[in-house]
Design goal:
It contains three helices and 15 strands. A four-stranded antiparallel beta sheet has the order 1-13-10-9, with no helix packed on it. The protein has a four-stranded mixed beta sheet with strand order 2-8-7-4. Strand 11 and strand 12 form a beta hairpin. The N terminus is likely disordered.
Length: 274
């Protein structure tokens, strides 16, 4: 075989191999998905979050300070009406000289944060006015979860794996904390799943996604199973440092199902003559 033919065959094989890997690497999911919120030019955050920001001073201003012409710059910081500005620790108002600060975002929708460097002249005329740098911020709701249809109950549940459906709304992927309480036929209750965090659920997309918990019911474990959601976070709320979601954002009541034993008809007894 000629050398060009060999190279062409190798190149064709590599393309087929890469294509096969790409197919295996595809991520699939369920739910109605829409385009992600914001872009690389916007900072998407969760309402109620305290987000830190920082501006680096112009390098030329640093050099002029070395010459003794300028003092350290001040920074004029402004935000839209949907937030409150703090110092870098988030505990008070920032000083004019602070280049790092934080914002508590309190209103949904499009917001802005802007900074202008203000050189401080040691002596002589005022220095040139700098441009104002503006960052667009999109403030979105906390993630939410709602139950789906309760799984089937009945005599065929024990010894099977049950799927407990729910819908998560936010920006995936989601992390959900849940527990399952089991009550026996005699009334004894225990947590068979104790505050178990499930991470990396769903797709990296914004919208509502249909998810589920799975639980393998042991054979002979008859009774009631109550599934409780205890917390939910999404990619944006985790980035925003919002660790605990309000209980209004997920169901506080359990989704229940039952495992019944198959009844055994008892022997017929003669109890009394008529």
């Amino acid at each position: 075989m000629k050398k060009p033919t060999i190279l062409k065959s190798i190149a064709t094989f590599v393309l087929i191999l890469v294509a096969g890997v790409a197919v295996k690497a595809q991520v699939t999911g369920t739910g109605a998905l829409v385009s992600p919120v914001g872009s690389e030019l916007k900072d998407t955050v969760t309402i109620g979050s305290v987000m830190p920001y920082q501006v680096s001073g112009d390098v030329n201003m640093h050099q002029l300070r070395n010459w003794g012409v300028l003092n350290a710059s001040n920074y004029t910081k402004l935000i839209s009406a949907g937030g409150t500005i703090h110092n870098s620790l988030g505990t008070g108002s920032p000083a004019a000289s602070d280049s790092a600060f934080s914002v508590t975002w309190s209103s949904l929708g499009a917001q802005t944060v802007s900074v202008t460097e203000v050189p401080q002249v040691i002596s002589g005329p005022a220095y040139c006015t700098a441009n104002t740098e503006t960052l667009d911020v999109v403030v979105i709701n906390r993630p939410k979860a709602v139950w789906g249809t309760a799984p089937s109950s009945g005599c065929g549940v024990a010894g099977t794996t049950v799927s407990i459906p729910y819908t998560a709304t936010g920006t995936g992927k989601f992390t959900v904390t849940y527990r399952i309480k089991y009550t026996t036929l005699t009334g004894t209750s225990t947590d068979v799943v104790n505050s178990n965090a499930v991470a990396n659920l769903g797709n990296n997309s914004t919208g509502s996604q249909s998810l589920n918990f799975s639980y393998s019911v042991p054979a002979g474990a008859y009774g009631q199973y109550e599934v409780f959601i205890e917390n939910i976070s999404d990619r944006i709320s985790r980035k925003s440092g919002v660790a605990t979601i309000a209980t209004t954002d997920y169901p506080v009541t359990a989704l229940s199902f039952y495992a019944y034993p198959t009844p055994t008809t008892q022997p017929i007894r003669h109890i009394k003559n008529l």
